[in-house]
Amino acid sequence: MARDLALLIPEIAVLLTAVGALIAEMLRRPQIALLVAVSGLIVATGLTVSLIGEDTTVFGGSFRVDDLSVWAKLILLPATILAIFLARVDVRGTVREGTVYSLLCFATIGALVLAGAGDTMFLVLGTLLTGLATFALVAYPDTDPATEAAMKFFVFASVTGAIMIFGLSYWFGAAGSTLLADLPGMDTMPMAVLLGFVAVVVGLGYKASLVPFHFWAPDAYEGGPLSIAAYLSVVPKIGALFALAQVVRDLPPESGWTAIIAGLAVLTMTYGYLAALAQTNVIRLLAYSSIAQSGYFLLGILAVGASELALPSIILFAAAYAAMNLGAFAVAASTGRTLNDFDGLGRAQPLIGLAMVIFLLSLVGIPPLAGFVGKFLLFAAAIDVQYTWVAVVAIINSVLSLAVYLRLVVPMYRQGNVVVARTDIWLKAVLIIALTVTLLLGVFAQVFVGPFA
Amino acid sequence: MLPLVSLTLFLPLVGAVLILCLPKPATRTVHVIAIITAALTLIGALSMWFQGASGAGFSQVEELQWIPAIGAAYRVGVDGISLPLVLLSAVLFLVAVIYTSSLRERPRAYIALVLLLETASIGTFTALDGILFYVFFEVSLVSMYFMIAGWGHEDRQRAALMFFIYTLLGSLPLLLAILGLYLGSPEPTFDMRAWIENPPLEGAAAMWALIAMLITFAVKIPAVPLHTWLPAAHVQAPTVGSVILAGVMLKFGTYGLVRFALQMTPDAFREAGVVVLILGVVSALYGAFAALAQSDLKRLVAYTSVNHMGYVIVGVAVAALTLDPSVRTVALDGAVLQMFSHGLVTGALFLLVGMIQDRAHTREMGELGGLLKTVPMLGWTFVLAAFASLGLPGLAHFPAEFQIFLATLSASPAAVVVILGIAIIAGTFLKALRETFLGEPRQRWQSMPDLSAREWLAVGPLLVLTVGTGVAPSWVLGIIHRTTSALAL
């Protein structure tokens, strides 16, 4: 018991942080809530470092402390800090400012639970935990679009969640256990395996905004506060994708799950970028771009269990994606929500413009930026398990994505109206951190890949 | 021992960062820093040149751990094929920043891009690691995109977009090929030396990898029918952009053709050699005919590049096809020297066309005329560069093309029809010279100034090297030959 709790120290720290921030808010001290949230998350990140290289489970195998779950903490906790910085800009001075910081911490716990899930019940728990916290966050501004977005988000979550629980009952029936580690035991019942898997994909696919379960994402991103859109596009998504990786690790390979994932990957990437091409609202464009990026993760998930490159590639790309996506959202937060707002940004604010160009090129996967290193390993993983055609589709989509992101870059260097960009200290901090990671991740890739070899 | 290669490689990047970090520098300061950086880089390249390259394998190798878990490392080094190209890049970038020192429109960003491009170019030629090569290969694309989009002519946005998407689509197959080579290696590694020593792929896998590489390099070279981005990009690019695009970046394609396609999938290349040979012949002839049909001086020079690069493809294909090592050496000597010469000559031609455009604001040959009398120095330098380009003996292209044709004649005589290209290019340039420079000078160009000191400094070194390489090619060929004669395929 003591050992189990010791291994869960980071999660416990995040939980205490969330509660602490909530108490500070009750005392009407939003600044203190902010301070508690940020310092608590930093401490939790620090506590995780000693767990690198662990590969074990706690509480009878129901929660895993392995590379995926440890790196999820190391990526998602700092990402949450950045999201809190962004949220500070959005909600400063509003009535319940502190609850936002607290809810962000709660949602992150949900994402961490997903990333370390060793039991099907943890999948349900994680989805609900992130879901409940984020509905409230999307609805926070209390405007019509925000309420509508939160409503859509909620209805979608309820339906997909119900489907997932229904499907998991098949697995429980077939395997006689809720542990993921017992899934291989049901290889005599291929139909049950497949049915359950489809249901899990629905539940987690909604959270990771995979096509065709993505419909809520653009509306929720656009309707809610920008910082929450940034958060939703990174933390719950990575949590859900890591959970998917945890699930497929134990699935019998002959059940044909790889074909489902491959199909979803192709559909998600292609549809995401095609839809992004048609957007004029920057937030919706970034929403569809983040949908398409989820498809790239699936390339790595495809190879889980069969290729040594799978887990490093997913983790590395998650870190890259968190940095570059939060960075792009931070620039949007400082500039505006429509493409017209970006006219002349690069000329008026050369540094912010340069940062945006770097984030977008990294999202395309241009070397030597972070996104390239991640995608490169993802392609390698997919080719390693003989899914070369999916890698080829992904590569063609990268070209399509260039057209998407250049729609933002081209107006930035037009002779345009003088852009008035907000340069809050919090925004600056996010930009600098995200930029540093995006630029240097490639050089230090060994840190992420090292423990596996 | 100084890490000469890395110093030379990253000097321009340091210059670029320095320029970006200075708070509101004067335009003059920016240009001075740029020229000093490029000059230092040239000194670095020259010292690499005098260190030389041993026969087999790579010399001056520098290695640093990067991602040992997947066998990727920072590895750079040179051999007789890359060394002339490094020198060529350093020379061309120096004359480019000298030429551009009159730029007043946002010089800081422009110079930073040029210097970033210099690092990317030298990096592409010196990288000995698959990932590293790809990184430099792609970075060059980004900086060129922004150069065209930001400082090009009338229709630059469209041309820049086409260039970026076309070449990105073109270079991604290379990524697949690199991954294929990596996964095929017995000991997973991105070390290009290992891939050359023991080509990791065979059979159908090697053929697929070769096809992927051929697509990438054919776009970059560019070879017909994947050349359509080139005229658009050249016409819209600023002068320095054209000089670098034609002088340095087209060589990425031909260099890759030798380094990757020929050295890493030699058997597949031998099988597909005839196809590549036909591709080269068609490219060379098509480029020549297309050049003949142009009335825009810059487009004309752009199409002669397609022709000259076609000869390089022919040379490499012959090297793959022939069974006689001595013929192979001659063919590769010619191909590599042709890359070097083309950089010098086309660089000079694009600079001169840019100078004409600066003065007349047109590139239409029909509107010019009689320039030899109005601006005699500009006129005669253009005549010299044009003669070099059409392969006159004593100038840089002649020894290169002669060797390529010689090898072709002994290996696959039918392909010698490509020699027709020379005649067509000669016709093209003679027509261009007559329309632009001969005849009676026109009234509207009377006040046109002749070459300034800055322009002399830019174009002079290229012409000196053109003559030098034509009269005594052995100073370059010596280094090339040492490697090509030791090449085991």
TrEMBL record, chain A:
Chief localization: membrane
Keywords: Cell membrane, Membrane, NAD, Quinone, Translocase, Transmembrane, Transmembrane helix, Transport, Ubiquinone
The keyword Cell membrane belongs to this UniProt entry's keyword annotation: yes
Keyword Cell cycle attributed: no
Chain ranges of the NADH:quinone oxidoreductase/Mrp antiporter transmembrane domain: 117-401
Family membership noted in the UniProt record: Belongs to the complex I subunit 2 family.
UniProt-recorded name of the protein: NADH-quinone oxidoreductase subunit N
Organism: Marinobacter segnicrescens
UniProtKB/TrEMBL annotation, chain B:
Lipid metabolism found in the keyword field: no
Topology within the bilayer: Multi-pass membrane protein
GO molecular function, one term: ubiquinone binding
UniProt GO cellular component terms: endomembrane system; membrane
Family in the record: Belongs to the complex I subunit 4 family.
Alphabetic keyword roster: Membrane, Transmembrane, Transmembrane helix
Keyword Mitochondrion tagged: no
Annotated signal peptide: none
Primary localisation category: membrane
Originating organism: Marinobacter segnicrescens
InterPro entries xrefs: NADH_Q_OxRdtase_chainM/4 (IPR010227), NADH_UbQ_OxRdtase (IPR003918), ND/Mrp_TM (IPR001750)
Domain NADH:quinone oxidoreductase/Mrp antiporter transmembrane: 129-421
Protein name per UniProt: NADH-quinone oxidoreductase subunit M
GO biological process: ATP synthesis coupled electron transport; electron transport coupled proton transport
TM regions (residue ranges): 6-23, 30-50, 81-100, 107-125, 131-151, 163-185, 205-230, 242-262, 274-293, 300-323, 335-356, 377-398, 404-430, 456-480
Compartments reported by the entry: Endomembrane system; Membrane
Pfam families tied to this protein: Proton_antipo_M
